[in-house]
């Protein structure tokens, strides 16, 4: 099999790529990485010394592709499917990239700050950083709520890479800072994402690992 994905079923950025793969039923070999295993860690380091996942390895093209957004763009370019995750229209493609960056930077990252603080050693917590992260999420929820009043998906009526980014970001963010009733359109968008078959599959596969989620 040409494509091999190095990932972990609980890792949110990995979910983003899995959603993209499942949307287009792209054949790939899943390779779960346990960073606590020296052998698995060394194998990942061999192909990507940064030792961050997800990483896609394409043996046919002798290409190693890191970073979730770049992986999805790579798949769109070399392994396109029925769902065009990056629109061909330049303006829509730019909007898709903007929304992708928004969910990664202003939902995903602050969510990660809160989760990461839960696993810091005693006495090493960052209360100020968590406070800022929660404030960022509140701002982001409000912005999403305003934008999703008349849209089904992040860029309109079509599911794109931006929704691949939004699914894990909002799912986990809702667990650390629940999306309240004051943001009904954000909540409804998350529910649509949860009902998307590709994301339902990701969640199902992650179920055995949820017990390891901090808090």
Task: Note the topology.
Blueprint: E1 3-7, H1 12-23, E2 29-32, H2 38-47, E3 55-58, E4 63-66, H3 68-78, H4 90-118, H5 127-147, H6 161-176, H7 184-195, H8 197-206
Parallel strand pairs: 1-2
Antiparallel strand pairs: 1-3, 3-4
- Biggest sheet record: 4 strands, mixed
Number of domains: 2
**Beta-strand content:** 5-15%
Counted by DSSP, the helix tally is 8
Instruction: Work out the number of β strands.
Output: 4
Strand order of the largest sheet: 2-1-3-4
Percent helix among the residues?
55-70%
Named CATH architecture of the largest domain: Up-down Bundle
Q: Mean pLDDT across all residues, rounded?
A: 95
Low-confidence stretches: none
Structural class call reads alpha+beta
For the terminal residues, how far apart are their CA atoms? 38 Å
Radius of gyration (CA) equals 17 Å
The CATH class designation of the largest domain is Mainly Alpha
Listing every helix as H and every strand as E from the N terminus to the C terminus, the arrangement reads EHEHEEHHHHHH
Oligomer designation: single chain
Shape: globular
**What would the CATH topology of the largest domain be?**
Glutathione S-transferase Yfyf (Class Pi), Chain A, domain 2
Protein described:
There is one protein chain. With 215 residues, the protein is an alpha+beta fold. The chain has helices at 12-23, 38-47, 68-78, 90-118, 127-147, 161-176, 184-195, 197-206, and strands at 3-7, 29-32, 55-58, 63-66. It has a four-stranded mixed sheet, with helices on one face. Strand 1 (3-7), helix 1 and strand 2 form a beta-alpha-beta unit. Helix 1 packs across helix 8. The longest helix has 29 residues, at 90-118.
């Amino acid at each position: 099999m040409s494509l091999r994905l190095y990932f972990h079923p609980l890792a949110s950025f990995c979910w983003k790529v899995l959603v993209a793969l499942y949307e287009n039923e792209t054949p790939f070999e899943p390779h779960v990485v346990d960073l606590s295993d020296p052998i698995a860690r060394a194998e990942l380091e061999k192909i990507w010394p940064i030792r961050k996942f997800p990483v896609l390895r394409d043996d046919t093209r002798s290409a190693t592709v890191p970073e979730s957004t770049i992986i999805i763009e790579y798949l769109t370019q070399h392994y396109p499917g029925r769902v065009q995750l990056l629109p061909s229209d330049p303006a829509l493609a730019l909007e898709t990239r903007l929304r992708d960056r928004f969910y990664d930077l202003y939902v995903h990252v602050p969510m990660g700050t809160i989760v990461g603080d839960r696993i810091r050693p005693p006495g090493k917590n960052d209360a100020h950083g968590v406070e800022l992260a929660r404030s960022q999420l509140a701002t982001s929820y409000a912005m999403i709520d305003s934008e999703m009043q008349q849209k089904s998906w992040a860029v309109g009526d079509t599911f794109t890479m931006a929704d691949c980014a939004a699914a894990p970001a909002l799912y986990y963010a809702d667990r650390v800072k629940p999306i309240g009733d004051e943001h009904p359109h954000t909540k409804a968008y998350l529910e649509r994402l949860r009902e998307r078959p590709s994301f339902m599959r990701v969640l199902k596969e992650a179920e055995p690992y949820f017990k390891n989620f901090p808090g």
